[in-house]
Amino acid sequence: MNFKIRAARKEDCKDISRMIMELAVYEKMPEQVKISNEDLERDGFSPNPFFECLIAEVSDEYMNKDGLPRGLLPVAVAKRCVRLQFSVLEWNKPSLDFYFTKGAEDLTAKEGWHFLRFHGQALDQLAREAPNN
């Protein structure tokens, strides 16, 4: 198998930014992308980064018809990953159906989980109300 998983580097930020926008366009939410290439560089590659990112370098010959890299998930399981968790928009029935046929569980229906988000004024207000330690 010809793929490599590596830690993202600062020079990957332009591609990461492009992929974020491509996903947002697919999800019909491009106006929600607020992060820039510069933000990614600052927030991910400072002495105390806010996030870590892995890059899977996979040649097209190793992609299956569903766009998933063949063999990548078995490697993740072999490295002791115990679960894969992600979000899918409600309108994206083709993806939901695909993941369900592969054995994914809908935790919203099964366990009652809700994903919540603070942003904008609500986030600002929450920060103002937080105790100063």
From TrEMBL:
SUPFAM superfamilies according to UniProt: Acyl-CoA N-acyltransferases (Nat) (SSF55729)
A single MF term (Gene Ontology): N-acetyltransferase activity
Keywords: Acyltransferase, Transferase
Highest taxon listed in the record's lineage: Eukaryota
Listed name of the protein: Spermidine/spermine N1-acetyltransferase family member 2b
Signal sequence bounds: none
